[in-house]
Amino acid sequence: MNTLRFFILIVIGPIAICGNFEFNNVRCLVRDRVFLDFDYCYLRSVNRTYKYLSLKTKLHKLPITNTVTNAQIRMRENKRILYNFDVRFDACKFLRDRSNVIVNWIFQTFADFSNINHTCPYHHDIILDKIPVQHINNIIQTVVPDGRYYLNTTWFVDGIPRADVMIYFTKS
């Protein structure tokens, strides 16, 4: 009988435990103000259960035809390489074929709340509108281990770094 209880706890235990995602901070840094500006970049907490991220990039030189992005996810307390992720990808090519699995996973966290849903060229501003914590929690819940992280993305247009977006988050 004790063996049966132990087996049930092992099987049911991991299924019942769900992680929670929480935004801690967001920073949007402009490297080239002649090329772009951020109209806004913020986190909002409407109540205890509804929190979201929004940002709008005002592009001054259009169209955008050549974009490379460098994305890094790092665990803030731990510098072990196991919890670090660093990838550089051609954003225009990725939007055509979506072949990079990890980049596609990151893209899914904001694709439904953004106007970045077509291939290059871009003739408009970039908007991420009210990405809710609950949506991201559903995507990363089983993939990301618990901890404090930051996502740092550097956006290059025509080989020149134009902006950085850093998102600090906790998964517990």
TrEMBL record:
Q: Which InterPro entries match?
A: DUF1091 (IPR010512)
Is the keyword Signal in the record?
Answer: yes
A Pfam family for this UniProt protein? DUF1091
* Recorded superkingdom: Eukaryota
Q: Where is the signal peptide?
A: 1-18
Q: Which UniProt keywords apply?
A: Signal
Checking SMART domains in the record gives:
DM8
What's the protein name?
GL16775
